[in-house]
Design brief:
By secondary structure, the protein is of the alpha/beta class. The protein is built from 9 helices and 15 strands. About 25% of the residues lie in helices and about 20% in strands. Its main location: secreted.
Length: about 325
């Protein structure tokens, strides 16, 4: 299971970055100094075709909170409706960076492509497995979604503890199944458990420079933090779904599309500073991407394999 370890915002801010994406850790201090690296393609299959993103809500989420995530997923669609409702810079423009991985994986043949669309939403508001989950139980919940042409996303509420959550991860991605593998993602709401680890820069980090936190674009520190982690995990799932796609480093602790660019959200980022971001003139919230239904989001930089560097929207 490729673990998207997100941030113990680097012992000097490495800790927050570490948990914000991948078991390899988001080594922000190293990457800001030298973003040049080479991603290796391990000849495995990338997700392709029309893929539904199914959301499995575990625990108590308000409808307004669910809308923050579902609008983000809808923003990833390349449908005309989505294209026409997103101002620039957009969530869809951010996602298009993943297309470059498909081009590199398809040398000497017609490039494959991936089209994401909003799938089913499954509510488990009665905590069917309790409020303390193991990683195996996360997989069990993920198996409740579709097993073909789908990414099943398990989202755990703020009052649910998950094995290793806040200790070495804010979320994970992986695959299950023998004959027909399906991809899954888990992301936890860190609002009451470890916002300094998994919701930076919307909360002060537990270590490192204590700059004032930024205002969350959807006025929900926990959910906006979940968007950051979900975004990075979706990029990793697309480009390294079964552990043999694009990554750098060891297979059990890979640097992937987003985890290779820890703590970077805009130009000029450095440890403790997310970068030069856009600011909403009305709310004062910081963001770098416009989404569906007038939403604004903060999304992590992605590693651009064509330039071997981290690419942020702003």
């Amino acid at each position: 299971m490729a673990s998207f370890v997100s941030t113990l915002f680097f012992q000097v801010l490495l800790m927050v970055s570490l948990l914000h994406l991948s078991n390899a850790g988001r080594r922000l201090t190293e990457l800001v100094e030298d973003q040049s690296m080479t991603f290796q393609y391990h000849k495995g299959t990338l997700l392709s075709g029309k893929i539904s993103v199914n959301l499995i809500w575990y625990g108590n989420f308000k409808p307004t909170q669910r809308a923050i995530i579902s609008d983000f997923v809808s923003s990833l669609s390349s449908s005309p409706a989505s294209l026409n409702t997103q101002s620039q810079p957009s969530v869809l423009t951010w996602w298009k960076t993943t297309d470059k991985y498909y081009s590199l994986s398809s040398k000497n043949k017609k490039p494959s492509s991936l089209s994401l669309q909003m799938g089913k939403q499954i509510l488990d508001e009665n905590y069917s497995l309790g409020k303390s989950l193991t990683r195996n139980q996360i997989v069990q919940l993920a198996a409740g979604g579709d097993h073909e042409n789908a990414i099943n996303v398990v989202l755990t509420a703020a009052d649910v503890t998950v094995e290793s959550f806040c200790m070495d991860s804010c979320g994970t991605h992986g695959s299950q199944g023998k004959k027909s593998k399906f991809a899954y993602i888990w992301v936890g709401n860190s609002e009451t458990q470890c916002p300094g680890q998994c919701a930076w820069p919307f909360h002060q980090p537990i270590y490192g420079p204590q700059n004032p936190p930024l205002i969350a674009p959807n006025n929900d520190v926990g959910m906006d933090g979940m968007v950051i982690n979900l975004a990075g995990l979706l990029a990793a799932t697309a480009t390294n779904p079964f552990g043999n796609g694009f990554y750098q480093g060891p297979a059990d602790a890979p640097l992937e599309a987003a985890s290779a660019c820890p703590g970077i959200y805009g130009k000029g980022a450095y440890p403790g500073y997310a970068g030069d971001l856009l600011v909403d003139s009305t709310t004062g919230a910081s963001f770098n991407a416009n989404g569906a239904n007038g939403r604004k989001y903060l999304l992590p930089a992605l590693f651009d394999p064509s330039t071997s560097s981290c690419s942020a929207l702003v």
